[in-house]
């Protein structure tokens, strides 16, 4: 006599990881297969504060339709981390989750085409710190470095290295400087993000040649790259670990930070926060500000302080809109 069916047999659910998000469809890795899946409508109804209730890297439970093999995502497991930004082109209080459950974020820049953008890097570093994700900086296209640029690129490199961030110069196109990054990626769930044209697709091809990711050209006139990556996607690494490639982004809006707390996410400013004359100092215009004094003494890089002021202004504007 056969044993009675278990509850699991009567209502089978599977668990997997979202590896690709294209809007209405999600690819979920379940064991050694990919299940094209949709989400329950309730997720969009109950999470109207986010543009994407499910993100690449999410661990989910799903049920597979026996007729066509597609899946229905039933549950989204709790996230350990997430990297998110303020959604562009939507209500300013909406969140766009770029990736979930990552161990480290890598911010990619290039020495030329497009040029280094410290303000962009600083915004992403703040977002990573808010979500307690260790971050590093990749400086790509070192093969295009000119003598005139050398001093500025060295300053950029040291600015972040001196703060304790790993900074990796490389030429992904020529396969130079790839090995140190592979060592950092091994056995980690990592995400690489940055503006279009910085070479994220070339980097993936250099790390895993078998992926054969499409690369695009960069306009000489605008110095902007084409969006060869149109959706976030998680790639398994043959040497251990996973890497999430993201679409190129030109602007990054910081969220989840109160203006008065912003300085705590700039590591070089933390020790000065409690030394200001006024306890509610914004470190912008007030007299007796210890952070402004540190900038004057050369202990805080002026470009970093400028980034702080720009982010502070955007956060203050968002606060005003809420009231």
Features:
alpha/beta, single chain, Ribonucleotide Reductase Protein R1, domain 1, Rossmann fold, 323 residues, six-stranded mixed beta sheet, five-stranded mixed barrel, globular, 8 helices
Explain briefly what this protein structure is.
By secondary structure, the chain is α/β, with parallel strands linked by helices.
Characterize the main sheet: 6 strands, mixed
- Cα end-to-end separation: 69 Å
Extract low-pLDDT stretches.
Answer: 1-10, 218-227
Mean of the pLDDT scores? Answer: 88
Structural class designation: alpha/beta
Number of helices: 8
- The ordered H/E elements are HEEEHEEEEEHEHEHEHEEHH
The quaternary structure here is: single chain
CATH-assigned fold name of the largest domain: Rossmann fold
Overall tally of domains: 3
Q: Provide the CATH superfamily of the largest domain.
A: P-loop containing nucleotide triphosphate hydrolases
Instruction: Note the beta-strand portion.
Output: 15-25%
Strand order of the largest sheet: 10-9-8-11-13-12
| Shape call | globular
Number of E strands: 13
CATH class categorisation of the largest domain: Alpha Beta
If you compute it from the alpha carbons, what radius of gyration comes out, rounded to the nearest whole angstrom?
Answer: 22 Å
CATH A-level architecture of the largest domain: 3-Layer(aba) Sandwich
